[in-house]
Design a protein that fits this description.
This protein has 2 domains: 231 residues, FAD/NAD(P)-binding domain (3-Layer(bba) Sandwich); 81 residues, D-Amino Acid Oxidase, Chain A, domain 2 (2-Layer Sandwich), CATH 3.30.9. Helix content is 38%, strand content 28%. The chain has 12 helices and 20 strands. The two termini are 38 Å apart. It binds adenosine-5-diphosphoribose and P-hydroxybenzoic acid (PHB). The site of adenosine-5-diphosphoribose has 27 residues, from helix 1 and helix 9. P-hydroxybenzoic acid binds next to loops.
Length: 389
């Protein structure tokens, strides 16, 4: 088998890269080690920056997003006694969309399988070879158990945090930065209409809480918990009571309904650099992880592949190396901006147990809720900064 760009991983990064390249006449093959059912069932982030929504729409995979996505013009920031709305259009002229990453993935897979580049599920034993040459190869075994070799001009490692690509970059000397936050999120999905128009990010002495939504009849809610907590110790009633306490506001209450899913998610940040070794380029979670408070994971993956697609088109069509040479630095500038914003949101909103920290957080929250400059800074980052910083 031969292709121009061998893509490892059929998450949003790999699938969108394949689509963006196809639109420019560059062929690719996407290799995924899980099944289509598995990939389409994974529940992940759901806030799309304006730029992400625009990129998906321009790539011809935004129909359902436009019809079923919920456009949001702000967020509510809350601390006891105050719920303040940040209105994004007036602060920075942009909005965000609530539309599940799961749905984005389904839309991309449907487009790909409808006459797009090859997408192979359930492959295994994926190995990279010769990435330091102009003819890298991917060895793998296909779903039928037949060993295969995919010869490429370029390989894109879009295989997430546990993939095989980053270790190959690492062998050549990669630098890694990591921060494990001492918090976790207990998340639930509930068949209950959201009791709020916009997402609510709530600071409370007992811990952070977030009110989000998936669709008009389905809510998504989160509670800060200790990473050592076990989900078995959180019956639904305890979760709803904690949400009531942490989100309390006069004449308002959380809407309860049957809980259809619950889990505890760790919170950490991870960045590895460079995002390239020879003809192997990393994109998305393969190179970086952010805590969910800033809602940046999916958006960073989309920004990476937008830059990477432009760089690969230039390399493969015009034989110019300038954009592939600057890819890692340009992508990382944005990665660190989003890592900082995610740290800022996480640090401002989660209870550390230290009362000095609490006063600093409340001071910061009051500042964001009273100063247009501070609010604009948050709004610009939340809705997404320009592709090149
Ligand atoms: N071979 C082939 N595929 C692999 C391999 C492998 N060895 N290892 C992992 N994969 C696949 C995974 O099964 C997954 O489908 O690579 C894909 C990586 O996709 P994601 O983890 O969704 O990562 P990415 O596409 O970068 O999307 C980033 O995902 O984790 C969220 O919040 C994050 O929203 C962000 C987004
Ligand atoms: C979500 O709806 O899952 C969600 C929303 C906003 C975040 C994180 C997660 O910051």
């Amino acid at each position: 088998m031969r292709t121009q760009v061998g893509i490892i991983g059929a998450g949003p990064a790999g699938l969108l890269l394949s689509r963006l390249l196809a639109l420019q006449g560059i062929d690719s093959v996407v290799l995924e080690n899980r099944s289509r059912e598995y990939v389409e069932a994974r529940i992940r982030a759901r806030i799309l920056e304006q730029h992400t929504a625009d990129t998906l729409t321009a790539a011809g995979v935004g129909d359902r997003l436009q019809r079923q996505g919920l456009e949001h013009s702000g967020i509510h920031l809350q601390y006891p006694g105050t719920r303040h709305t940040l209105d994004f259009p007036s602060l920075c002229g942009r909005t965000v969309w609530v539309y599940g990453q799961t749905e984005v993935t389904k839309d991309l897979i449907a487009t790909q399988l409808d006459g797009g580049p090859p997408l192979l599920f359930c492959v295994f034993d994926v190995h990279l070879e010769d990435v330091d040459t102009d003819a890298p190869r991917i060895q793998f075994t296909d779903a039928a158990g037949t060993p295969q070799v995919l010869e490429c001009d370029v390989v894109a490692g879009a295989d997430g945090f546990h993939g095989v690509s980053r270790p190959v970059v690492q062998e050549a000397g990669e630098r890694v930065w990591e921060r494990t936050y001492p918090y976790a999120w207990l998340g639930i999905l509930a068949d209950a209409a959201p009791a709020t128009d916009e997402l609510i990010y709530a600071w409370h002495p007992e811990g952070f809480a977030l009110y989000s939504m998936r669709s008009p009849p389905v809510s998504r809610l989160y509670l800060q918990v200790d990473p050592s907590e076990r989900i078995e110790d959180w019956p639904d009633e305890r979760i709803w009571d904690a949400l009531d306490t942490r989100m309390a506001l006069e004449s308002w209450s959380v809407n309860r309904g049957p809980v259809t899913e619950k889990s505890i998610l760790p919170m950490r940040s991870f960045v590895s650099a460079p995002m390239r070794r020879g003809r192997l380029f990393l994109a998305g979670d393969a190179a970086h992880i952010v805590p969910p408070t800033g809602a940046k994971g999916l958006n960073l993956a989309v920004a990476d592949v937008t830059l990477l697609a432009q760089a690969l088109v230039r390399l493969l069509r015009e034989k110019e190396t300038d954009l592939v040479d600057s890819y890692s630095d340009r992508a990382l500038a944005r990665v660190w901006r989003c890592t900082h914003f995610s740290w800022f949101m996480t640090s401002m909103l989660h209870r550390s147990g230290d009362d000095f920290d609490a006063e600093l957080q409340l001071s910061q929250l009051r500042r964001v809720c009273s100063s247009e400059t501070a609010a604009r800074e948050l709004a610009e980052n939340y809705t997404g900064l320009p592709l090149d910083l």
